[in-house]
Amino acid sequence: MCDICGCAHDVKDTKTISINQSLLKSNEDAASANRKHFDEKGILAINLISSPGSGKTTLLEKTIEALDGGLSLGVLEGDIETDLDAERIRARGVPAVQLTTGGACHLESALIHRGFHALEQQLNGKKLDLLFIENVGNLVCPSFFDLGEHVRVVLISVPEGPDKPLKYPKAIRTSQLLIITKSDLLPHFDFDVEKVRADACALNPSIKVIVTSAKTGGGIEEWVYFLQTNLTTELKRKKP
Ligand SMILES: Nc1nc2c(ncn2[C@@H]2O[C@H](COP(=O)(O)OP(=O)(O)OP(=O)(O)O)[C@@H](O)[C@H]2O)c(=O)[nH]1
Ligand SMILES: [Mg+2]
């Protein structure tokens, strides 16, 4: 068990399991309330999960560039310390709130609820289309916590190695999209994209895979299309 967050992974002690189950249950209740709130406002919420440094904030920067004001975005940035990532997003003219967990290795729904209200204050009544939640860099604990998102996206970068889907199956099983980032580095690493795709699809047959590079812009158009399609589907689903 993770000593910091008390997550339910690899739990052997029955007393600990019951504590963690109640923690997860209260998180799930708050996640449902968040999702209802986002639904009422016609927002598509996206939770980005990855190891530290896989390229989450860089992908968001490229997304802002690619959308070029076509959709209205807001970002909740999760980190253990500092508001460096939120500053990077705000520098591109997009509202962002930093959620510093003070040691915890994942975000939880109650923090998202508070962060979203803080974000709304920056919006001055402007409607959001997409809410991005950049989770704390960690491929384990964030997989266990629904934040009320509509879409979960897991990122694995080329330098991390091709064994990550097999080693972190929960992240793959609970995500709708796997983004393989830093594809410009493929010539320098033993990273078999087709094997990673096959491993991910064996764990989660419905997962979609997109290969991107923030350096060359490869795959960014496909990612933007994924976002637009999911936003349209969500809006249709909510229509009476
Ligand atoms: N070569 C290459 N480098 C990249 C790419 N995307 C991101 N990087 C670099 O990877 C490093 C980490 O990128 P970030 O976007 O900050 O990663 P992150 O996942 O947000 O990191 P944390 O928030 O700390 O978990 C930076 O030096 C980026 O410039 C890419 O597509 N190709
Ligand atoms: Mg980041």
Describe this structure in words.
By secondary structure, this protein is an alpha/beta fold. The protein has a single domain, classed as Rossmann fold (3-Layer(aba) Sandwich), CATH 3.40.50. It contains eight helices and seven strands; from the N terminus they run H-E-H-E-H-E-H-E-E-H-H-E-H-E-H. The chain has helices spanning 14-40, 56-67, 84-90, 109-123, 164-167, 169-173, 193-203, 220-238, and strands at residues 44-50, 73-79, 96-100, 130-134, 151-157, 177-181, 208-211. The protein has a seven-stranded parallel β-sheet with strand order 3-2-4-1-5-6-7, sandwiched between helices. Helix 1 runs parallel beside helix 4 (109-123) and helix 2 crosses helix 8. It binds guanosine-5'-triphosphate and magnesium ion.
Question: What count of helical segments does DSSP give?
Answer: 8
CATH superfamily: P-loop containing nucleotide triphosphate hydrolases
Q: What's the story with the biggest beta sheet?
A: 7 strands, parallel
Any low-confidence stretches, pLDDT <50, length ≥5?
none
Bound compounds: guanosine-5'-triphosphate, magnesium ion
Q: In CATH, what is the class? A: Alpha Beta
Q: Tell me, what's the shape?
A: globular
Please report the total strand number as a whole number: 7
Second-tier CATH architecture: 3-Layer(aba) Sandwich
Strand order in space, largest sheet:
3-2-4-1-5-6-7
> How much of the sequence is in beta strands?
15-25%
| Mean pLDDT across residues | 92
